[in-house]
Write a structure and sequence with these properties.
The complex is a heterodimer of chains A (314) and B (481).
Chain A (H helix, E strand, L loop, with lengths): L2 H32 L3 H14 L3 H7 L5 H9 L8 H14 L6 H17 L6 H25 L4 H29 L12 H10 L3 H8 L5 H10 L7 H19 L4 H14 L3 H7 L1 H22 L5
Chain B lengths: L28 H8 L3 H18 L3 E2 L8 E2 L3 E8 L1 H25 L4 H4 L6 H4 L21 E10 L2 E8 L6 H14 L1 H6 L8 H10 L12 E4 L8 H11 L2 E3 L4 E4 L2 E6 L2 E4 L2 E4 L3 H4 L15 H6 L4 E3 L10 H4 L2 H9 L11 E2 L3 H9 L4 E5 L9 E2 L5 H13 L4 E5 L5 E6 L2 E10 L1 E5 L2 E4 L4 E4 L15 E7 L3
Parallel strand pairs in B: 3-22, 6-7, 6-11, 11-12
Antiparallel strand pairs in B: 1-2, 4-5, 4-19, 8-9, 9-10, 13-16, 14-15, 14-16, 17-18, 18-21, 19-20, 21-22
Helix pairs in contact in B: 3-13
The chains are: A mainly alpha (314), B alpha+beta (481).
Chain lengths: 314, 481
């Protein structure tokens, strides 16, 4: 397959994954804001922008952090190149570029997802319909995932698609965790102290892990336990450990198909090994923030190596 | 139920479905029988269904200069355009003859130029032609084929009167609509296809792939690597490029995917650079090679023309093939067909005045109100004058352009193009149509897909069928009778 096509498929999946995670983050912020007085609510909305790494850009355009304003910025603002709508648009453009490498179902899932969201997001989002909008985004992402899983041949095209998904997911989980820990735990001495459990609920909710975590832990909220769950639990599909196991598998199958490994395999092997050696104790010993930054850098290096080894760009 | 007919029975126009006294022509007998028992509301509902289907599958085209409507649908009409088997056999013989002559003409123009020496074609016709490429002189492409894919635009003015309006020898587009229109009709009205024997078109991509592979250069592997070269996702016909690549199982490449390595044109794959044997290019000659042609082109491949001239890659259609689809050359087609085939042309041209000739120019200037005047190098329905529907001011303005550069124009009578009904909320209404059959040429022979693309002017009375100007399409049937 063409390097450029592989690049498009990889990024199509990254954008869709990021759009979905952004919607989840917004959903979690929305729920928090409902249980807060207005001051604290606007603090919650601000933290959504911080988590997305868009504080500077947002502040350059708007004053204050009202719910509707933040939601419209994150979801549909033309000024925001990373809005959910523009991510869907970029995903679709990439799908069009790589169209002849996608199954009909996958192409239609991306195209229809974009059409649906373009339609829903043509008007400003209000609190009364935010829930509908967010569940539409989740539904479209789910349809795409289902079409990919259910119709695509397990060849290089599929492996590049999945690699894009897990690179992005690992990145997003690490970032959300990092920012939330920063906000919630200004110093390490707080770890283990009893904090507002609804805050932790929000972290889990934004990673679709709230129910599972409660189920595993009989409803107990423990910051350390949550970090362990999101980083190391290989059963949880949004954890770093799960993402890396998937990534390693996809790349291994690619090597099998192509009959050769390349630099990226060494790099992934190293990172996966490094991750598997961690315990939650050793992570907190180094410092969670330091660990996550280290991880994000390594993950970026893996993404670069994939692009390099498989000639994404001339 | 009888569908309301909004037909004008006093019009001299030939309607392909209804006779002047309201009878049904034989080609449409079976279809009409079916239509009469369909409910009008149900049909309207089906129309909306078709549009949703086109949106979802992304069958759109981009319109240049329209920011908001970046991707538009070409309107699709549900009433098929039907041609009988006998009509088609006659047409296809004429098309094949014409296509053979076009290939022979291009070869001759780039070699001995017998037709010029014989005095049947003025030399200025190709010397002044932008599509003429000196790089092609003395070179014969692999298999001797210049026009691998040809679209011959036909119009009809009577029961037995088909004429060629235009030859498309560069990169005729629209074949994806021919295929998708058929898919749509079969999905919407399956029972129609069990009732009537319609010759299939769906094997076109496979035939195209085979035909292109048969033109591969000698150095090609046993299974030649064929790729479709597109200007990219923002091109108006991108959908078609992707569609054809997909259906042929070929890579869809852009200039940036290619470079020249060891005397071959190679594409950048995830496993390294691999040679390409046949390039079905959907970019203009000008953009093919920045080293040979337009130096600022970012769409092409530096050095590809050297590889081509060394016979180590096939480019379809051949660079420089456009000399043959110029409208000035067109006016000589009857002579050209006779010169190369030794036969009388089976398909007539539309009568054409060459404004470069003094007497013709005088006639055209005197009759602007009733003629259609076209730019020799224009396409897409732009830069033309339709006398009968133009205002006095428009005609005056055009007259000045014509007088300033007469050799730039040809003129034709305003034809009473045949009509086929389209489905409207108010009933069946006649609209003008043309037909573009698609022809494949390889050393193994000439293949014509039965049918082609019917373009239809959706506006009442309009003669402009171009999609860039609001025209629509119909599924085109050739009956297997």
């Amino acid at each position: 397959m063409l390097g450029r096509t592989a690049n498009s498929i990889f990024w199509m999946c990254r954008y869709l994954e990021r759009a979905e995670n952004t919607a989840r983050l917004l959903d979690a912020g929305f729920r928090m804001s409902l249980t807060r007085a207005s001051d604290a609510a606007s603090e919650e909305w601000r933290s959504v922008i911080v988590t997305l790494g868009q504080l500077e850009h947002y502040d350059s355009l708007y004053d204050g952090y009202s719910g509707p304003q933040v939601c419209n910025y994150v979801l549909r603002d033309r000024e925001n190149p990373s809005s959910v709508l523009s991510m869907f648009e970029m995903a679709r453009t990439n799908a069009r570029v790589a169209r002849s490498s996608l199954t009909m179902e996958v192409w239609e899932a991306v195209n229809e997802g974009w059409m649906t969201l373009k339609d829903i997001l043509a008007r400003p989002v209000r609190e009364s319909n935010l829930g509908t909008v967010l569940s539409a985004i989740r539904r479209e992402s789910t349809l795409f995932r289902g079409a990919t899983y259910g119709t695509m041949l397990r060849n290089d095209i599929y492996h590049f698609a999945r690699a894009g998904t897990f690179i992005e997911r690992a990145d997003n989980t690490a970032r959300i965790l990092d920012v939330k820990y920063h906000l919630l735990l200004p110093s390490l001495s707080y770890v283990g102290s009893s904090l507002d459990s609804s805050q932790w609920d929000q972290v889990l909710r934004s990673l679709a892990g709230d129910r599972v975590y409660s189920w595993l832990n009989a409803g107990q909220m423990d910051p350390r336990g949550i970090a362990e769950f999101l980083i190391l639990d290989w059963r949880f599909p949004r954890s770093l450990a799960f993402s890396y196991e998937q990534l390693r598998q996809q790349l291994a199958e690619l090597a099998l198909e192509y009959g050769q490994e390349s630099d990226v395999h060494v790099l992934i092997g190293n990172t996966a090994h490094w991750l598997s050696e961690r315990t939650i104790d050793s992570i907190f010993e180094t410092g969670l923030h330091e660990f996550l930054i280290d991880f994000i850098d390594r993950n970026q290096a893996v993404a670069n190596a994939i692009a390099e080894d498989y000639r994404f760009i001339a | 139920m009888q569908h309301k007919r909004l037909m004008n029975t006093t019009s001299p126009t030939f309607d392909e479905m209804f006779t002047a006294d309201g009878g049904i022509r034989p080609a449409y007998a079976g279809y009409n029988e079916w239509l009469e028992v369909q409910d009008q509301h149900w049909m309207t509902h089906k129309g909306a269904e078709a549009e949703a289907f086109f949106r979802r599958t992304g069958i759109t085209f981009n319109v240049y200069g329209e920011q908001d409507a970046e991707e538009r649908l070409i309107p699709f009409d549900m009433v098929p355009r039907i041609i009988t088997g006998a009509e088609w056999r006659k047409l296809s013989r004429g098309i094949e003859q014409r296509v053979r002559a076009i290939n022979a003409l291009i070869h001759d123009l780039y070699h001995r130029q017998e037709i010029i020496r014989s005095g049947r074609l003025p030399e200025r016709l190709f010397r002044d032609n932008d599509a003429w490429l000196p790089e092609m002189v003395g070179f014969t492409p692999p298999g001797g084929v210049y026009t691998h894919i040809v679209g011959i635009d036909l119009v009809r003015t009577g029961a037995d009167e088909f004429m060629v309006l235009e030859d498309n020898a560069r990169t005729p587009s629209g074949v994806s609509y021919m295929l998708e229109n058929r898919e749509t009709m079969m999905a919407m009205f399956p029972e129609l296809f069990t009732k009537m024997r319609v010759r299939p078109v769906s094997d076109y991509p496979r035939r195209l792939a085979k035909s292109l592979a048969a033109c591969a250069p000698d150095c090609a592997s046993r299974r030649p690597v064929v790729a479709v070269l597109t200007p990219g996702v923002y091109n108006s016909a991108y959908f078609e490029h992707a569609f054809l690549a997909d259906q042929m199982g070929a890579e869809l490449i852009e200039g940036s995917d290619l470079h020249v390595e060891n005397g071959r044109v190679c594409m950048r794959t995830t496993r390294g650079y691999q040679p390409v044997d046949v390039i079905y290019r959907r970019i203009d000659d000008d953009f093919l090679d920045p080293l040979s042609f337009n130096p600022s082109s970012l769409l092409g491949v530096p050095g590809i023309m050297d590889v081509y001239r060394a016979g180590r890659v096939t480019i379809a259609n051949a660079p420089g093939a456009g000399v043959a689809d110029d409208k000035a050359i067109y006016s000589f087609m009857p002579e050209i067909v006779e010169f190369y085939t030794g036969e009388k042309p089976l398909l007539p041209n539309v009568p054409t005045w060459r404004c470069a000739e003094k007497d013709s120019l005088a006639y055209v200037l005197d009759h602007l109100e009733e003629l259609v005047v076209k730019e020799v190098h224009g396409s897409g329905g732009y830069g033309m004058l339709i006398g009968p529907t133009s205002s006095k001011r428009e005609i005056r303005a055009f007259r000045r352009k014509l007088e300033a550069k007469p050799e730039n124009y040809i003129a034709q009578p305003t034809l009473a193009l045949s009509t086929v009904p389209i489905f409207t909320r108010k009933g069946l209404a006649p609209r003008h149509v043309d037909l573009r059959p698609f022809v494949l040429v390889s050393p193994k022979g000439i293949e014509i897909t039965p049918g082609g693309l019917t373009r239809v002017a959706m506006k009442k009375g309009s003669l402009v069928v171009n999609s860039s100007q609001g025209g629509g399409t119909k599924d085109s049937w050739v009956l297997d009778d």
